[in-house]
Amino acid sequence: MTARIVSIGTALPDTRVAQSTLRDLFAAQPGFDRKSQRLVGAAFDAAAIDTRHVVLPQLAGAAVDGLTVRDGDTLLMPPTGARNDEYRRAAPPLFAAAARAALRDSPYDASSVTHVVTVSCTGMFAPGPDYHLVRDLDLPVTVERYHLGFIGCAAAIPALRLAARIVGDDAAAVVLVVCCELCSLHWQTSSHPDQIVAASVFADGAGAAIVTSADGSPDGLDLEGFATHVTDDGEKDMAWTVGDSGFEMTLTPQVPRIIGREITAIAADVLGDIADIDAWAVHPGGRSILDRVDSALDLDAAALAPSREVLRAHGNMSSATLLFILRDLLADRALADGGRVAALAFGPGLTVEAATLTRRRAAA
């Protein structure tokens, strides 16, 4: 039984902040010498990001609304518990907003949902986001719930894979997949290059998809194949750990190089002849990652435009980002019926997750 994404909805925090504003704030931190300030400027300016959305208005210079994270131009380092409390307050409304948007654009209402799959790596609590969706959306209390945590930027693909497996086992299933990440809660005021790079790209946002049997809807993206590949190295180059002052990201300059070195063989194994791919949904972990994929696969100049546009407008929203790209491809009238889509995402490990999808359009 083929599973199909029939709709995708997204949601963003109210606060939108310019990349230049975040750059200047981060470079102004006490203890940053001129070398560190130059590195901040170079990393933020090279990120190919114009704006990001954050759940912390203070980062944009607004009044405190929730967690206090700055005193004047000095960024504070709240303990992990306080950051997680803010996640517990701010994440459920974004999960719900993205889910409502996906349901609104689908043939289904809340009462039709049979399964919920939630995804996040930027906070944790129980009863968790999956439970809150049942309450906030008035879903059936019998809905089956699953939560995928701490998989990082690659997690949307495993979530869609799980949804496809559910539909494959139960043709009547209506699966709600929701990814929500509040990366801004874990800013580290460190001049270490890894932390500067992380601060230059990560943002907040949520995306949701409704996945059902292809027989239940004439329009959408068919989920046709999935694959996971763990690279030979990179375990220490991309990592996400819980520290005393928030979650700590390790993101070394080796990550784009590893992806660039291995992506050709992975793509050939997972996607087949890439000349047959009509559209690409590549997770924009950063501009340099997109550049490496582009170069290694020798793609057309416009192939990664959807990924670059999401990065430019929103930054890297971790797991939610891929759903923003798929949303745009779903709305792209130039992608004809039968068009093949390749999705790639990269997570700690270093792990590559891949999916192949086919655009299906209702007959005129």
Give the N-terminus to C-terminus distance in angstroms: 25 Å
Instruction: Describe the sheet with the most strands.
Output: 9 strands, mixed
* Residue fraction in strands: 25-35%
Beta strands, count: 15
Helix content: 25-40%
CATH superfamily of the domain at 220-360: Thiolase/Chalcone synthase
- Annotated CATH architecture of the domain at 220-360: 3-Layer(aba) Sandwich
CATH class of the domain at 220-360: Alpha Beta
Give your account of this protein's structure:
The protein has 364 residues and is an alpha+beta fold. It has a domain at 220-360: Thiolase/Chalcone synthase (Peroxisomal Thiolase, Chain A, domain 1), CATH 3.40.47.10. It contains ten helices and 15 strands. The protein has helices at residues 19-27, 34-45, 80-104, 129-136, 156-169, 193-201, 254-271, 287-297, 305-314, 321-330; strands spanning 3-11, 15-18, 51-54, 70-71, 74-75, 115-120, 144-149, 174-182, 204-213, 220-230, 238-243, 246-251, 279-282, 340-347, 351-360. Strand 14 and strand 15 (351-360) form a beta hairpin. The two termini are 25 Å apart. The model has no long low-confidence stretch (mean pLDDT 94).
